[in-house]
Fold these 2 entries.
Entry 1:
Amino acid sequence: MGDRLRLAIGVMGNVASLLLYSAPIFTFARVIKRKSTEEYSCVPYIIALLNCLLYTWYGLPIKVVVILIPVILAFGIISATSAFMIHNHHQRKAFVGSVGVVASAAMYGSPLVAVKQVMQTKSVEFMPFHLSFFSFLASSLWLVYGLLGHDLFIASPNFVGSPLGILQLVLYCMYRKRGIAEVPNKLDVVQNDHKSTQLEIMVTEDTKEKT
């Protein structure tokens, strides 16, 4: 029963994580549409990438051939150290897992960089709901999974991630009714300026004809 429950929680954790990592699609669509990153922070996405790389390495067997990944220098250093300097499987898991705990906690807390702006502007426009919700859902499921499997490297960061997810959702509920400030598109501003200039020219020409 215990193993089945842990397996079920693990499957749900994977689904929640997939939703978490898919959540920024809405933000990316808005950025592409407006051709601007506006006030969105890149920190959550960079740390999420680092966290994915670290936990991918954490789950690999000890005999897997090391492939240098130049995407992130930090991941390259950690993977090389654990592969070439730590030959004991348990020590390797302890090393990579410890770093993964820090990276995972940072990932779950990274959306909080927008909290100051949310409280100042009374707007949640730049703290996406989907990112906050799936962050809470994924961290809560992985917390239960880690506790059931007695794996502190999985459970520990989620002791931080789950409460931080709740905090983000509370802030969203507090300020979501305040409305979202619409930022005019740069192209629209240019077009409006162009139309205003044309109108002024037409008015000037009409005035000259009448005089």
Entry 2:
Amino acid sequence: MDCGVITSKTVLLLISLFFWAAAAGLSYVGAYVLNTYKEYDPFLQDKYPLLPAVIIICVAVVMFVIGLIGCCATIRESKIGLGVFLIIILLVFIAEVAAFVLGFIYKGQVKTDLHEPMVQSYKNYDGKTEESHIIDYLQQELQCCGVDNYTDWIGSQWFNATGNHSVPVSCCKRDVIKENCTGQLSDLKFLNTQGCEEKVESILQSVLNYAMLVILGFAIVKFFGMLSVCVLTCKREQHNGYHPLSGTFA
């Protein structure tokens, strides 16, 4: 058997098996991105940043079936099966490239889309609404206070309503005893002073970078898979077109 055919078959079988692992991997990445963005949903003005994650999950759904088609088509060297496999790989490749491009575009817009909704949420903070509880959770988990820094609370609805000009106790440092921290600015040593926007932006950027690296890796594999299908199909055509001479010459 031709070395090119053996190599192509090996690559395609590995890719077929890889599709099942990829399905699990892409599902995890998509769910992780969706879950991360869900935590900061009140601060995001548009929903289109979720598109890359949705595309990733949709791609993962068809991975298992694609793996089966790839294995059967490769082993039997079916022209139709290989053609279908090539089309599927091409469609998945396009979807992954689209997700990568969308992620790359949104990376530069995270700060812009994040700032205004966060400022508005902090203005409406009263310590009772669900949005207020999310802000408290955010400040406690990320150990931050305010949008840019703790001074964002000065003059806010909450700051004026407390009567003692204090920030929410969720601004208190994690290692401080609750009784010692009341949120008053006179006890600044007990408070986190760094703003939350920078930390949220950093988390979202990291998630996008992680997702884009995974997508890029899968896209490269799909590219080599398409080359292998082409090689195997061409070799099969050459083999079918070859008819050995028989008989003797007088």
